[in-house]
Amino acid sequence: MSIPEPILIVYSELPKAIATSDLRQARVDEFLASRSLQPKSRKAYQADLQIFMDWCDLAWVDVSRRKVTQFKTFGNVTKLLKSNKVE
How many CB atoms lie within 10 A of CB 52? Predict the structure, then answer.
């Protein structure tokens, strides 16, 4: 007598990953709204903070002074590399 092959029955698919909203952007929006900034200044702040958020995926409460210093160094190196770019 042989053992029959098991039959797998899938009752449901695995739950899809829930898209979590990035609360950091909400905090940036709150920060920008709380300031009396000119449109160009607001745009510059938003751009700089977006670069930081792309570079560092930590929540704001986990960002240390050291992390900010590392980012500033990263920015300076990036600017230096761009200025030395051969075209």
Answer: 19
Global confidence as pTM: 0.63
SS3 84: coil
Q: How many angstroms separate the CA atoms of 71 and 48, rounded?
A: 11
Residue 57 CA to residue 77 CA, distance in Å, equals: 20
Q: Can you count the helices (H) and strands (E) in the chain?
A: 3, 0
For 53, other C-beta atoms within 10 Å of its C-beta total 16
What is the per-residue pLDDT across 13-66, written as a single tens digit (0 to 9) for each? 665 554 445 789 999 999 999 999 999 999 999 999 999 998 888 889 999 999
- Which regions of 1-87 does DSSP assign to beta strands (E)? none
Domain boundaries, the chain: 23-83
